[in-house]
Design brief:
46% of the residues lie in helices and 17% in strands. It has 402 residues and is an alpha/beta fold. It has two domains: 203 residues, 3-Layer(aba) Sandwich (Rossmann fold); 184 residues, Rossmann fold, CATH 3.40.50.2000. Strand 13, helix 13 and strand 14 form a beta-alpha-beta unit. The two termini are 15 Å apart.
Length: 402
């Protein structure tokens, strides 16, 4: 079986946490590798990010990453240019695919053209939905909503990460529930596993005598980092010893760009840290290699995911697999993974008061953290990429034989 992944928006090789590179990159890379182990050939078509010309990289025996050059920022137009370049590549190499699997809505727009030209089925993974961003974050994007609705109608199948996402597709996009398949993402348990806390801190040159609060994600308004900064600021003002006993670590963004000067959101976040006099106990670590994240998860006392919207929350799953204590906003896929008071804590979405209160409770109670992290690790054992890939292959076979 040979599958074509369409990933117009992002390449799985780009550094995580920088601009648009995040959980979808992790998903693409790990799913493709898991499919490789099941003897499925995967060609990932994406835009060039560093290269100026077409380039092909084999990630392993059966996974090929194909970069195609695209110029310009009119992405709705460029998706069709991209589709034509994919078609020329496929025909030039005389390739045959069982089906297309598109990731994100821009990819879906390209894939609709490819589906018609190649006469093969299309399965769509949205990863995030514009209507949900509008509902939870007030981000208005009517053109994207229109595009997503078209993709919902014309795709042969929709792959949702949770039952929550399936219901969102039905309620807000009027998707046919019969063509929505729920298959959770997984976690690479060979990489993400519990490590010794003090040993991890020593490796990372982090202090052994402080509580470490960790944020991992893109520097993007949807990730809610501003909420976490405000909550930590309030705690530092309320409790005289907070600044001395705690440190906030932020993984994400590009530190090669001084002061995040070319990144509007990064510059805004940095300004908040300075204005609230938090520079002494807040550290921007920038992007970190994915295989180094287990050290940070294991070193931290609390991992906070304050997103105002998440369709799933791979950071939580990775942290769970490292037996970490997690505090997350009660929204979307985060509620699917985190059961409040059982394997983590949830705070009311957007509530700085609730976030600061629960964060302080976790920081000051090691017994609760231990109980939650133990349960979190047990939860993570349900999510293996190997098992999820088997389910996805079954879906591929069902669609390609229909």
């Amino acid at each position: 079986m040979r599958i074509a992944f369409i990933s117009y928006w992002t390449c799985p090789r780009t550094r995580l946490g920088v601009l648009k590179s995040g959980g979808m990159n992790v998903y693409l890379f790990n799913l493709a590798n898991a499919l490789n182990k099941l003897n499925v050939h995967v060609d990932i078509f994406t835009r060039c990010h560093r290269e100026k010309h077409e380039s092909v990289v084999y990630l392993n025996k059966r996974v090929c990453l194909i970069h195609l050059p695209i110029n310009g920022n009119n992405h709705y137009y460029q998706t069709q240019v991209f589709a034509q370049k994919v078609l020329r590549y496929i025909k030039g190499k005389n390739l045959k695919y069982n089906l297309l699997h598109a990731h994100y809505f821009y990819s879906g727009l390209s894939a609709l053209t490819l589906k018609d030209s190649l006469n093969i089925p299309l399965i769509q993974s949205f990863h995030t939905l514009a209507i949900m961003k509008q509902k939870y974050a007030g981000i208005l994007d009517p053109d994207r909503i229109k595009a997503e609705k078209e993709i919902v109608i014309k795709s042969d199948a929709l792959l949702a990460a949770t039952e929550f996402e399936k219901q969102d597709l039905v309620d807000y996009y009027r998707a046919d529930p019969r063509k929505i398949y729920v298959i959770n993402p997984g976690v690479n348990r060979h990489i993400f596993k519990p490590l010794d806390k003090n040993g991890s801190r020593q490796t990372l040159k982090l202090p052994l005598d402080k509580n470490l609060i960790l944020f991992v994600g893109r520097i993007d308004p949807i990730k809610g980092l501003n909420l976490l900064l405000e909550a930590v600021s309030r705690l530092s003002n309320k409790h005289p010893d907070f600044r001395r006993n705690n440190r906030l670590l932020i993984i994400g963004g590009d530190l090669n760009i001084r002061s995040h000067s070319s990144d509007r959101e990064g510059a805004k976040i940095l300004k908040v840290v300075r204005s609230k006099n938090m520079t002494g106990f807040t550290e921007f670590l920038g992007s970190r290699p994915h295989n180094r994240l287990p050290l940070y998860y294991s070193a931290a006392d609390v991992i906070v995911l304050p997103s105002v919207y998440e369709s799933f929350g791979l950071v939580i799953l990775e942290a769970f697999a490292c037996a970490s204590c997690v505090l997350a906003s009660a929204v979307g896929g985060l509620e699917y993974l985190v059961k409040d008071g059982r394997n983590g804590r949830l705070f009311k979405n957007g509530s700085i008061n609730d976030l600061s209160s629960k964060l302080n409770g976790l920081i000051t109670d090691g017994n609760v953290r231990k109980k939650l992290s133990t349960a979190a690790y047990k939860t993570s054992r349900k999510f293996n990429w190997e098992d999820q890939a088997v389910k996805i292959v079954s879906l591929y076979k069902k669609l390609s034989q229909a």
